[in-house]
């Protein structure tokens, strides 16, 4: 695989993982009892964005390694037993 492809895949996987990690451990300002004037009570009290970016980076690297390993293993859709087998012609 070319490095440009790997970078593009990592970028997409990183963003998907970020949106999965962002809500973890969030405590709203309303739950904390300290609502800053001008913000909604549902705004996070401490978003911990650097920690979440680090977690996202590690998770995205693991996911990318799994995808690259799967693509290089030689397995294909024909190896999945419950999928129908398709022939090349009619």
Overview of this protein structure:
This protein is mainly alpha-helical and 90 residues long. The chain has one domain (3-79). 52% of the residues lie in helices and 0% in strands. The chain is built from three helices and no strands. The protein has helices spanning 3-21, 29-32, 49-72. The radius of gyration is 21 Å and the shape is elongated. The model has no long low-confidence stretch (mean pLDDT 90).
Whole-number count of domains? 1
Low-confidence runs = none
Main beta-sheet annotation:
none
How many strands appear in the DSSP assignment? 0
Distance between the termini: 33 Å
- Sheet/helix structural class: mainly alpha
Helix content: 40-55%
Can you tell me the overall shape?
Answer: elongated
The rounded Rg comes to 21 Å
Key features of this structure:
90 residues; mainly alpha; 52% helix
Summarize the structure.
With about 90 residues, the protein is an all-alpha fold. Helices cover about 50% and strands about 0% of the residues.
Annotate the secondary structure layout.
Blueprint: H1 3-21, H2 29-32, H3 49-72
Helix pairs in contact: 1-3
């Amino acid at each position: 695989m070319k490095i440009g492809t790997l970078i593009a895949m990592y970028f997409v996987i990183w963003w998907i993982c970020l949106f999965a990690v962002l809500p973890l451990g969030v405590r709203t300002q309303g739950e904390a009892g300290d609502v800053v004037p001008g913000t909604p009570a549902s705004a996070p009290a401490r978003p911990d964005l650097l920690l979440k970016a680090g977690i996202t980076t590690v998770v995205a690297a693991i996911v990318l390694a799994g995808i690259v390993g799967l693509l290089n293993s030689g397995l294909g859709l024909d190896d999945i037993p419950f999928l129908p087998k398709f022939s090349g012609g009619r």
